[in-house]
């Protein structure tokens, strides 16, 4: 149980510490790199995590460890990994790790059973037992779409077994784009919704069925696979129960990639690669479960996150993937981090006076260097940055492409820290700007799984240290409620909203 008095003392100690310059930290401690970087081994290859270019030093790490003890991080972690109630507002566990084999034994067994069901369907489709399938349109929104879209884009750019298109936006242009790329005679539809009532998803699904029917497909529902925690509703909607792939109610949407929501990933990659992705995440799970204090990689990342939001007043955190295959990673992390930790009350319902989640944003290197890095180097905002790159390129072109890409990635981190003084103020760089680097040996299913699990646990660690609940998301409901009121047409709004509705032809 958290000791709030001890936590306040830890925060007081943190605020009293000297804020050193990054270059001074390296000069005063010859073992700094060794202390603040570590590899996670994944059988063949691994991932290097380097937090040495952040302002964390021994004193700050010690004080953050005291904070983690005061907030009972070990107890919260144990509850998470054992299937305890970690979402108190909804009285739920959060059992995404059980999908990877780490968790309550009964939940792990259930996940294995549901995975076997999914594997059987995937393999049947790949063998042509359900007819020729060349395309899959995966319809979802939020966590039901962002994770699959990222994984397919990262891992299935070359040699995909099935051409996958992920559609989330209710804007019909998104669905029409998928239709244009697919032959309806060889297309399957995956409908991903935890409740099987999400209005955007179900509206898009109805339009997809109409598209199949208009193209002469005699049994459109025979082309549909449902991915849901509400299988009865999927069957009621019209999906044959043999093509309903359930997942547990205790698996949250933004943590659901590992469940049947990962069906499009398995369709694109094949089941063996999907299983490798699960195992890579499980390696990170075991590290997170078994490693204490500053040596715990997700917890150390949370220390850095809280240092910058609470002690340096940083309102944003930037993520730049120097790998085109990870172009969607900032989008994925936006939901994971901001929907989880964008809260204003504690898990006990008490108001929070301190900042919680920063605004996550980012882009792809080297494009971002010619767009936003001016502000990062010389602007007045201090922005902690994560750089993510892979040693092995994802292309077969001249090696100069990848060499230049990585050189730019590492140069940015060095330049942000070092800066450069000039007699001309316009050409002067203050330096002392923090970054961390995650260097993947090779972007493959296992390393991708470990990368995503790392960020899940980092998000959870941040929440525990702030005393908030990362597993509810009531903030997204208000806008939905008002949208439903607009659809019903029986509520009067403010003058501005009424004028907009009239201008758009939605209201008279």
Notes on the protein architecture:
The chain is an alpha/beta fold. It has three domains: 7-18 and 39-70 and 291-472, Glucose-6-phosphate isomerase like protein, domain 1 (Rossmann fold); 98-275, Rossmann fold (3-Layer(aba) Sandwich); 476-508, no CATH class. The protein is 47% helix and 12% strand. The protein has 19 helices and eleven strands. The strands form two sheets. It has a six-stranded mixed β-sheet with strand order 1-2-11-10-8-9, with helices on both faces. A five-stranded parallel β-sheet has the order 4-3-5-6-7, sandwiched between helices. Strand 3, helix 7 and strand 4 (163-167) form a beta-alpha-beta unit. Helix 1 packs antiparallel against helix 4, helix 13 crosses helix 17 and helix 14 packs parallel to helix 17.
Write the SSE topology.
Layout: H1 4-16, H2 22-28, H3 32-36, E1 37-41, E2 46-50, H4 58-70, H5 73-82, H6 105-126, E3 135-139, H7 143-155, E4 163-167, H8 172-181, E5 187-192, H9 199-214, E6 224-228, H10 231-237, E7 244-246, H11 263-269, H12 271-290, H13 297-311, E8 316-322, H14 329-341, E9 359-364, H15 373-378, E10 385-390, H16 400-418, E11 435-440, H17 445-466, H18 477-488, H19 495-503
Parallel strand pairs: 3-4, 3-5, 5-6, 6-7, 8-9, 8-10, 10-11
Antiparallel strand pairs: 1-2, 2-11
Short description:
This protein has helices at 4-16, 22-28, 32-36, 58-70, 73-82, 105-126, 143-155, 172-181, 199-214, 231-237, 263-269, 271-290, 297-311, 329-341, 373-378, 400-418, 445-466, 477-488, 495-503, and strands at 37-41, 46-50, 135-139, 163-167, 187-192, 224-228, 244-246, 316-322, 359-364, 385-390, 435-440.
